[in-house]
Write a structure and sequence with these properties.
single chain, alpha/beta, D-Maltodextrin-Binding Protein, domain 2, 2 domains, eight-stranded mixed β-sheet, 8 helices, Putative membrane associated periplasmic amino, signal, Solute-binding_3/MltF_N
């Protein structure tokens, strides 16, 4: 279950690209790789975040461990690096052997990387303070508001490319902490976030979950593991097959994946209004 006052602590630290250490992986059952694999995570609870002790945790972390084990690998979670999304994507693009999670596979990104997934499907939408009584009935109404959005994120691409929101209406931010602080203080009218991630972020920011609502659902979004393009198709295929296996239900009607979801989604789902 998502909890902890330290959730955002290391996410806002600036990490030098060339100081990132590799993730230790046993290569005995894998195709030959160019070198050690580096694993990055961006802050996206309950899928990936840091626990109170600084340990990487979340749905995607557990899934990564399972599919690596199923593919015949072992991983060292202490080597996973928590880095903002835009910086992580640049690192992955410049690397021969890096993995980032959890990431939306947008048309702009799709050809630049290799992908394993989807890990999970979530609703991506616009969150407001209930006291503002913001009701959005049509996507054309979105441009009336000032929106806080993470720089170079999937929501930024969706707002500008698919919804035609002028860039002058967007306030570009680096972290989820900034998003919720700006929204709570009235500096922006709306922010972009998922129905699964918002509840834990609101609580860990010291805010009241009942003060916020999702005013508009922009899209259902699939999350993936994003891999450097130089990974072999054989390696990517092993991970994809491993993911398929852990999602396969057993005789009891549940799967390993179902059990992972149950461990982490132990809170009430965020209320979605005005759909």
């Amino acid at each position: 279950m998502v909890s902890g006052k330290m959730l955002f602590k290391n996410f806002i630290r600036y990490v030098q690209i060339f100081s990132i250490c590799g993730l230790c992986i046993s290569m005995s059952a894998l195709p030959a790789l160019a070198g050690p694999i580096t694993i990055y995570q961006c802050n996206l609870p309950p899928f990936n975040y840091q626990s109170e002790t600084g340990q990487p945790t979340g749905i995607a972390v557990d899934v990564l461990v399972e599919i690596m084990n199923t593919a015949g690998c072992s991983v060292d979670l202490s080597k996973i690096k928590n880095v903002p999304l835009a910086r992580s994507l640049r690192c992955i693009a410049a690397s021969n052997s890096s993995i980032l999670f959890s990431v939306a596979k947008t048309p702009k990104r799709e050809k630049s990387f290799k992908w394993v997934g989807p890990i999970y499907n979530l609703k991506l939408g616009l969150i407001s303070k209930k006291s503002r009584h913001i009701i959005i009935n049509d996507k054309q109404d979105i441009s009336k508001y000032k929106i806080g959005v993470i720089r170079e994120s999937a929501p930024y691409s969706i707002l500008t490319k698919e919804y035609g929101v002028p860039k002058k209406k967007l306030t570009l931010l680096t972290t989820d902490v900034q998003q919720f602080k700006m929204l709570n203080r009235g500096r922006v009218d709306l922010i972009t976030q998922s129905n699964t991630g918002a509840p834990s972020m609101i609580r860990d920011a010291g805010l009241n979950l009942s003060d916020f609502e999702m005013s508009y659902v922009m899209m259902d979004l699939d999350l993936y593991f994003c891999l450097s393009k130089n990974f072999s198709d054989e390696f990517v295929g092993k991970l994809q097959q491993a993911l398929k296996r852990i999602k396969t239900k057993g005789p009891d009607g549940t799967s390993t994946f179902d059990k992972i979801i149950a461990r982490h989604l132990g809170y009430n789902q965020f209320t979605v209004h005005h759909l």
